[in-house]
Amino acid sequence: MASIGACGLSGVNRQAFSDEDVQARKLLVKWASELGLRIFSDAIGNLFLRYEPKGSTGAPVLSGSHMDSQPCGGRFDGTYGVLAALEAVTALHASGAQLRRPVDVVCWSNEEGSRFAPGAMGSMVFTGTRSLEEFLDIRDRAGIYLRDALGQTLDAIPQAQRCPIGFSAYAYVEVHIEQGAVLEQAGKRIGVVTGIQGCRWFEVEVTGEARHAGTTPMRARKDALQSAVRMILALREHFADAQDHVRFTVGRFDTLPNSPNTVPEHVRFTIDLRHPEDAELARLAGSICSIAQTAGAPCGVTVRATFVCDPVQFRKRITQHVADAAGALGLEALHMPSGAFHDAMFLAAHCPTGMIFVPSARGISHHPDEYTASADLAAGARVLAEVLQKLATE
Ligand code: GLV
Ligand code: MN
Ligand code: MN
Predict the structure, then answer these.
(1) Spatial distance between the Cα atoms of 319 and 317, rounded to a whole number of angstroms
(2) Which of 37, 159, 232, 282 has the smallest CB count inside 10 Å?
(3) Quick check: helix, strand or coil at residue 270?
(4) Nearest partner of 135 among 307, 2, 339, 371, judged by Cα
(5) What is the pTM (predicted TM-score) of this model?
(6) Is the CB of 112 inside a 6 Å radius of any atom of ligand 1?
(7) How confident is the model at residue 180 (pLDDT cuts 50, 70, 90)?
């Protein structure tokens, strides 16, 4: 799978609804068809590969993640969770285990949000958190509409039967690389994920005046870039906390007219803000607008929220299944929260949900150097298979 959109030494560039995303989906569907799974897709392109052995009925157990990537991200982020779920279903099939309910391998659309922001679109639409219509007119940096890229993606998999958005699920379990260094430092192989910290995205627009760089006195300028820099520094200072819990990132920064000898007229930048506590995250998010406007004067400033996910605690029943499975397999496990967001964040409001982590070497992720040892990937898939069997038979 990692050869599709290969980038750097071992990374992938497979952004949502791109040609590479389509190729990856086709390969996944090919593997699923070889296993005899039934292929479904909903209107936002979430793929469901259903294992429905004789005697199984009712709402399926869902397991998967995403296969879209950052602009040049790692090969494991998301894709591991989809392929581990396919591997687990392969094992359930081979073992002939009697299941009471079907198991769906899921590939959620556009989890990363780097081409079409925000992220987790597939899982948000599936769970009714946001509507598909809200997203159709979003454009990427090349001006391509999501509705067109999505349409091409759906057309490319004609064998997928269309299913409704948001059907009921018995449970959802996602295995993912940790993307941080906690497991590695603790020397543990399995993370029993207890929950996910909250995250909010904002888009800030700064409007100044384009003027000649040689003739316009400094005093007379409304320089949108200088204002944006002041805002970012003021926010960074405001968010600094002694415990280092706040996560504040400006990851995208665009300026117009982007010319060396014109005072910048217009700047647009993104804010990704995260915190484990709901009230604190809301408080910090609520302070952005006034800090930005004060620091940004004399330029005009608007702040727009584009993504809200509140902190989530997973159900004890599912975390217990994960801990039990790791214990039964003799794998050392650590209960831990997730710093990254995942599709599981939104599924948690839809059905009992949990996650399994495996270690990330040096905690590196959203980078081609992202790496997890094969033995750790296999351990996570083994735990997942046990948990899926348990959920599908209990
Ligand atoms: C997921 O990609 C995240 O940014 O946490
Ligand atoms: Mn991911
Ligand atoms: Mn990611």
Answers:
(1) 6
(2) 159
(3) strand
(4) 307
(5) 0.97
(6) yes
(7) very high
Task: Give the mutation target among 68, 366, 367, 370 for probing the ligand 1 site: most ligand atoms within 8 A of CB.
Answer: 366
112, 58 contact by CB (below 8 A):
no
Atom of ligand 1 nearest to the CA of 113: 2
Q: What is the DSSP string of 120-140?
A: -HHHHHHTTSS-HHHHTT-B-
Residues 6+ apart with CB under 8 A from 95: none
Which residue(s) pair with 73 in the sheet? Answer: 12
Ligand 1 lined by 68 (C-beta under 6 Å): no
Residues 6+ apart with CB under 8 A from 110: 16, 17, 44, 66, 68, 116, 119, 120, 121, 122
Using CA atoms, how far residue 193 sits from 137, 175, 337, 340, in Å, is: 35, 10, 5, 11
Q: Helix, strand, or coil here: 301?
A: strand
SS3 category, 369: coil
Q: How many angstroms from the chain centroid is the CA of residue 62?
A: 17
Average pLDDT over residues 253-263: 98
pLDDT tens sequence across 342-367: 999 999 999 999 999 999 999 999 99
d(CA 26, CA 36): 15
Q: Which two tokens stand for residue 243?
A: 């415990």
| Residue in the structure block whose two tokens are 């967001």 | 341
Which of 176, 271, 342 for a ligand 1 pocket mutation test, highest count of atoms within 8 Å of Cβ? 342
At residue 275's C-alpha, the angle toward residues 269 and 276, to 5°, is: 155
Mean pLDDT within 188-205: 98
Q: Copy the structure tokens of residue 185.
A: 């430092």
Average pLDDT rounded to a whole number, residues 124-151: 98
Tell me if 339 sits within 8 A of 274, measured CB to CB. Answer: yes
Ligand nearest to the CA of 177: 2
Residue 86, amino acid: L
How far is the C-alpha of 91 from the C-alpha of 353, rounded, in Å?
22
The answer for residues whose C-beta is within 8 angstroms of residue 273's C-beta and 6 or more apart is: 199, 200, 201, 202, 239, 246, 247, 248, 249, 281, 284, 285, 288
